[in-house]
Amino acid sequence: MENKPKLRLGVGGWITLAVLAGFLVAAIVYATDAWRDLSDVALSPAGWVFLILGVVITVVVGAGLMALLFYSSRHDYDR
User: What are the residue boundaries of the structural domains of the chain, listed by start?
Assistant: First the structure.
């Protein structure tokens, strides 16, 4: 049985994690503030339809691209 060395996070890794955590906190604060500011905005039925269509199309395109990625990886098209 091989003894693999434990990989520990260095100073640069901790700094990177701290910066990314700061970005996450800033994004959450911005999103909640924007959500609160837009709470009294009304959306028409056509707006809801296009919002739902946009979400569905975005998810379908993302899933399709991921499927193509896995397909090309499985069939050695990545070279």
Answer: 9-41, 42-79
Q: Average of pLDDT values for 54-64? A: 98
Find tokens 């809801």 and name the residue.
Answer: 48
Backbone angles phi, psi at 41, to 5 degrees: -85, 130
pLDDT tens track for 14-52:
999 999 999 999 999 999 999 899 888 898 999 999 999
Distance CA 25, CA 31 (A): 10
Q: Cα 62 to chain center, whole Å?
A: 11
51 and 43 in contact (C-beta within 8 Å)?
A: yes
Rounded Cα–Cα distance for residues 28 and 38 (Å): 15
26 neighbors 20 (Cβ within 8 angstroms) = no
